[in-house]
Design goal:
CATH topology of the largest domain: Rossmann fold
Mean pLDDT: 79
Structural class: alpha/beta
Number of helices: 20
CATH superfamily of the largest domain: P-loop containing nucleotide triphosphate hydrolases
Helix content: 40-55%
Distance between the termini: 41 Å
CATH class of the largest domain: Alpha Beta
Length: 579
């Protein structure tokens, strides 16, 4: 860690009773350096629970003090709005922590307060609002009156070609910060606005590598401590009894053998099971839910290390509303002593809100749901997850499991464990194995560096990966030994040395000349890329399209417009079309 403190950074004067987390401070130091060098678009990778809201506000304080931006627009999915950004008391508390003035803010909605009062410095908008015609028009008006910093929360939802990306791309901005815990997409699409490199492989393919300004990985969070729960992953490999229709002969086959017979493609198994309604079968549900409920009951009965805090809660993820209804019915019949409910798109909105509020308040033991408790939902007492859906993509799986990994300060280390149960047919062993390796490497790093005095007093006798009270023949529990694994994650991270920012050293005339040169070179590259795809495009056509878009010729553009033209040309080059 650099010797630079938060108080050394422009725009920050932290309160005496506050200190940034290691990763937050590292990001802000690199952000100030990047702004000094003229780099304005960045990616920050932070695990859930690490404080992205605070990081966004501190980033704006730095950007404003350095003259980069004078307004902040934060974009969030609708489900994250109330949970993370729309609490005035919490916002005021965070601004006091970082030493920023009490900045007025409002939520962009149908009341259009931010349009009527354009001097409001902070606006929180949902991606859904930005996609609406009137909402996008209002945001364009607001953003064009200042120099906005865009913070795109959960940016993994914004592929370059996506609806949300197109809506945000129509808005003017001077700097952009994308935030996510999982900035990788299963469809391989590049994300909107964030820096990345396209690297050719030895076999002639191209791989996308994101350049994160700073990354806080799973292992970093566990090395720092008291941010995420540990994880114990249990993969159930069950046995199926099959009957030969002609002879009536019964054959028992394990899931592994079935994979070999049908094919390793998980989609083949999904179709096979769907035709036979296997995932709705009581024996199948008992096989998966039995061990999960057993571990859940053990936690609740002992309230292990939970002190005076709330008791443990369980989350069940299903593949459809009908599946969730059947699972809830099974839970009520088989485990009637537990209070359980469900939410889904088929449940009326008001009733759905009431059920979620009851679960959030600890009045419900088990929630059965279909992708309704996602990013932004912060229920720290979730400590058992039964994953019964068909999602196997790494980024989505991580987001699901993160819902049960938020550290709960009212519990001690022994209680801060998230148990994940899933079936072997989903092909999640690799992802779960990677997660456990990351967690364990972080724990080892914390041990090597030595615990803090208060952590040294704790005596956690529970095995990190042991599972008791469950049939071990049917479950593959990830019990991984310490490994010398130096790879931090799938992302490539560029770390820059910090130099004291000096805004006066910036030569604006030289910047303008350099930007014009870069735009001309990019326009040439775009034209050649389109010609290679068989399009009749000349360099002058690219500049003409830019002139129509920005209403000025390149020679008449300000620094702000040149930067926007450069970003647009980079997007065109990535997409291989005039976007």
């Amino acid at each position: 860690m650099s010797s630079v403190s938060a108080a050394d950074l422009p725009g920050l004067d932290p309160a005496p009773d506050f200190s940034f987390r290691d990763g937050q401070l590292a990001f802000l130091i690199k952000l100030a350096q990047a702004y000094q060098e003229g780099r304005t678009d960045h990616l920050g990778v932070f695990v859930p629970g690490y404080g992205k809201t605070l990081t966004a506000l501190a980033s704006f304080a730095v950007a404003r003090a350095m003259g980069v931006c004078d307004t902040l627009v934060v974009f969030v999915p609708r489900s994250n709005l109330q949970e993370q950004y729309a609490d005035a008391d919490e916002m005021a508390r965070m601004l006091r922590w970082i030493g920023a003035p009490r900045l007025p803010f409002c939520v962009a909605d149908s009341d259009r307060v931010f349009v009527k009062n354009p001097d409001i410095p902070v606006v929180i908008a949902t991606y859904q609002y930005a996609c609406g015609q009137s909402g996008n028009s209002d945001l364009q008006r607001y953003c064009s009156q200042g120099s906005p910093l865009f913070v795109l929360d959960e940016i993994h939802h914004l592929p370059e070609e996506g609806t949300w990306s197109q809506a945000v791309g129509r808005l003017p901005y001077d700097s952009l910060i994308g935030l996510s815990g999982t900035p990788l997409r299963s469809d391989g699409q590049p994300l909107f606005g964030v820096p990345h490199d396209v690297v050719p492989t030895n076999d002639g393919r191209e791989e996308l590598h994101y350049r994160a300004l700073h990354e806080v990985s799973l292992r970093d969070a566990h090395a720092e401590g008291q941010i995420l729960k540990r994880i114990e992953a249990h993969v159930i490999n069950y046995t199926i009894t099959m009957v030969e229709e002609d002879t009536g002969e019964e054959v028992e086959i394990t899931l592994g053998e079935l994979k070999s017979e049908i094919g390793r493609d998980t989609a083949h198994l999904d179709r096979y099971f769907a035709r036979r309604s296997l995932r709705f079968h009581a024996v199948y549900l008992e096989t998966l839910l039995g061990p999960a409920v057993g571990q859940f009951q053990k936690k609740r009965a002992g309230h292990i290390g939970s002190g005076t805090g709330r008791n443990h809660q369980m989350l069940v993820t299903c593949m459809s509303n009908r599946h969730a209804a059947d699972v809830l019915d099974f839970m009520e019949r088989r485990y009637g002593w537990l209070s359980a409910t469900r939410i889904g798109q088929d449940v009326p909105r008001d009733e759905r809100a009431e059920r979620l509020a009851a679960y959030r308040n600890g009045e419900v033991d088990v929630m059965v749901q279909v992708d309704m408790i996602g990013e932004g939902t912060d229920i720290k007492t979730i400590s058992v997850i039964a994953k019964l859906d068909l999602v196997s993509a790494r980024s989505k799986t991580l987001q699901q499991i993160f819902r049960g990994m938020r550290y709960y300060d009212a519990w001690d280390e022994a209680a801060n464990v998230c148990d994940v149960f899933t079936s072997g047919d989903l092909g999640l062993s690799e992802t779960l194995g990677w997660m456990t390796r990351e967690v364990q490497e972080g724990l080892r790093r914390r041990t090597d560096e030595g615990p803090s005095p208060e952590k040294a007093e704790q005596n956690d006798e529970r095995s990190e990966w042991a599972l008791t009270g469950v049939d071990e023949e049917k479950i593959e529990t990830h019990q991984l030994k310490f490994e010398d694994n130096t790879q931090n994650s799938d992302l490539q991270v560029q770390r820059q040395p910090f130099e004291e920012p000096d805004p006066d050293s910036l030569d604006l005339s030289a910047q303008e000349r350099e930007l014009r040169k870069e735009c001309s070179e990019l326009a040439t590259q775009v034209a050649h890329a389109l010609e290679n795809r068989g399009m009749d495009i000349h360099i002058r056509d690219v500049h003409a399209e830019a002139k129509d878009r920005f209403r000025k010729a390149q020679s008449d553009m300000s620094l702000k417009l040149l930067k926007r033209k450069k970003k647009w040309l980079q997007r065109c080059l990535r997409s291989k079309r005039l976007v």
